[in-house]
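Let's practice the habit of predicting before peeking. Look at the sequence and jot down your guess about where helices and strands might fall. Then scroll down.
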Amino acid sequence: MKNFSFKINENSYSVKILSQENNTIELEVNGTGYSVKMKEDISVKKTPTLVRRPSGVVPTEPVKMKPSSTSNDKITAPLPGV
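Done guessing? Here is the structure:
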């Protein structure tokens, strides 16, 4: 699960937490296994999950373009850089 490094009175300790159930923790200190009981239960934080609701998409009608004039006039517009 997690690894920790401690230095107590100039002595280095490598602690690896193997498992946790309620208030009992199985851990390994410098390669030696230990079972530790806590006075209180350890609260485990749950990662929140995102629940997505289906979006209420309203069908829309396609936009109909009406030409402003019916003549075949050529439209010219200035283009930048030309």
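How did you do? The chain has no helices and four strands.
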